[in-house]
Amino acid sequence: MSASVTVIIAAFNAQDTVSRAIRSALAQPETAEVIVVDDASRDATCGVVADEAKRDPRIHLVQQETNHGPAAARNRALDVATSDYVAVLDSDDVFLPRRLAHLLSVKNCEMVADNIAFVTPENLSEATEQDWSVIDPKFAPLVAAEFVRGNLRNHGMSRGELGFLKPVLSRDFLEQNKLRYDPSLRLGEDYDLYVRMLLAGARMQLTRRPGYAAVVRSNSLSALHGASELAQLHIALQAHLDSRPQSSDLTRAMQQHLRDTRRKRDHRISLDLRREQGVWAAVRYLISARDRAWPVALQILRDKLNLSKTAEDAAPEKGSRLLLSVE
Known about the structure:
Blueprint (H helix, E strand, L loop, with lengths): L4 E7 L6 H9 L4 E9 L5 H11 L3 E6 L5 H11 L4 E4 L5 E2 L3 H5 L7 E9 L4 H6 L9 E3 L2 H6 L8 E2 L8 E3 H6 L12 H11 L4 E12 L11 H16 L5 H30 L1 H9 L5 H12 L4 E2 L10 E2 L5
Parallel strand pairs: 1-2, 1-4, 2-3, 6-10, 8-11
Antiparallel strand pairs: 4-9, 5-10, 6-9, 6-12, 7-10
Helix pairs in contact: 8-9, 9-10, 10-11, 10-12
């Protein structure tokens, strides 16, 4: 791989964290440029980024007059990126030291990902200062079926979701295959792009050594997704199946993911109907389709038993929680 990476940051009301994200990217010698797309923030995000740009010419600010969501913002950055590879960094997260050097050591693949350490804001410094080199640095291939299965529900209190991964991507592969984020998605936009890259023939490698610290907040945007976002994700997942994947194993995994998302969508719709129109409106919706009521009942039970947590939700009060087990 070429040591030339464009780091893409989609920022919305990120005045308190975007400097930290930018500086963590600039601390990587492999970073050629950092493109920050301000998605119509209502705070001082633009001013903060402009001040950072005065100190380093590698920083470029793109401003959007209307909020279109992270997928559209990242597409704006991809359209002006100049490096061989791109890396997405959320505006409240950071790259861990020497991350890009490790990822760029991999040859002959279009997607290279590492483990994620989920932390609270109070524990971020500890994560960035920790010696992660004790964890095996080796990479292993990750094929499409394994990637999709890595997003399915498992038993236990929490589950990892490979859609959280933030791989370095080949910009040339994206351009040749005319691939971009789906701007209609405000949930699962990363997962959707990764699947479409894999279906187009991209090769993916993954290491369990952490290189990315994701800061978990109780008021994060990821906690605010509703029925419309789940409905759009359902459409995207159906499109993956409609592409007729060659592997029967991949098809089965995609079908299960589609069923899981449909259940979550129907559950959210029923909750919205109950709040807006009353209990009987929710009941009528649930019984209007033969296969709707029972899956939603199971979802409610999982929520009651606290079985629906994701790795992102489960950051501990002290230390960090890794997306991928290293045991």
